[in-house]
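Hey, I was hoping to borrow your eyes for a little while. I've been puzzling over a protein and I'd love to understand its fold better. The fold is given in discrete form, as structure tokens running alongside the sequence. I'd be grateful if you could look everything over and explain what you see. No rush at all, and the record is pasted right below.
>
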Amino acid sequence: MALTKPRVIELLLMTTVPVMFLAAEGVPDMWLVLATCLGGYLSAGGAGAFNMYYDRDIDAMMDRTSQRPLVTGMVSPRECLVFAAALTVGSTVWFWFLVNPLSAMLSLGASLFYTVVYTMILKRRTAQNIVWGGIAGCLPVIIGWSAVKNEVSWASLILFLVIFFWTPPHYWPLSMKVKDDYERAGVPMLPVVAGNKAVARQIVLYSWVMVGVSLLLTPLGYTGWFYTVVAVACGGFWLKEAHALQARAKAGITGAKLKEMRLFHWSITYVSLLFTAVAIDPFLR
């Protein structure tokens, strides 16, 4: 199970299922929800396993990843690679026959993007790795919509953008916390190459855009008052935390007093609450 990065998959499915409720304007076919979740787990799990296979050298250098199965020797590289390939192929076939071909292609695209574009190309080369590499994590919202509607809509694209702009300010605080790990492994995460002040400034910028994009659903007619209230309240609290982090960074505060993980933990709560509102809103309109 550890090879599939289950905690990451939880977040991906947390954004997938609510979009299915939004697309169905109520309760979607529960078999379809189950099929989509299982296919999504297999697809994301395969990508996660490929990531562990490719990054096994740098994982051994970082405290945060030093207990991963390939580093400890619990799983051999060959076993991991076969496992990853099996999950990727299996998920594509699963989506194709039990959901629809469009969702299968989107799922395969997300897996390949994470594996090739992020893991193999961007991660070790640019501080913008998590920005563009995060596209793979945005696709589950489109997959959730396509599973129900067999199409891509403006609603799914807006939610795609919400996750796109959410990903950097979600991950950069964690990167600030463990930047020594990344520096030791030679991974040019933004906190390693730019410093806390510059990172905090980028976090605030992305946060404002994310909140603004999240509010587009209602004027376009996809959501109503309930989603809007949740988006405004959660977005407002996010911006408060982002600006507070920037203020601490500007003041030169470092170490535990920087409290960068407050925003990281809130970012998970934020996306959970926002997408719960996405699922509930159709029942209140």
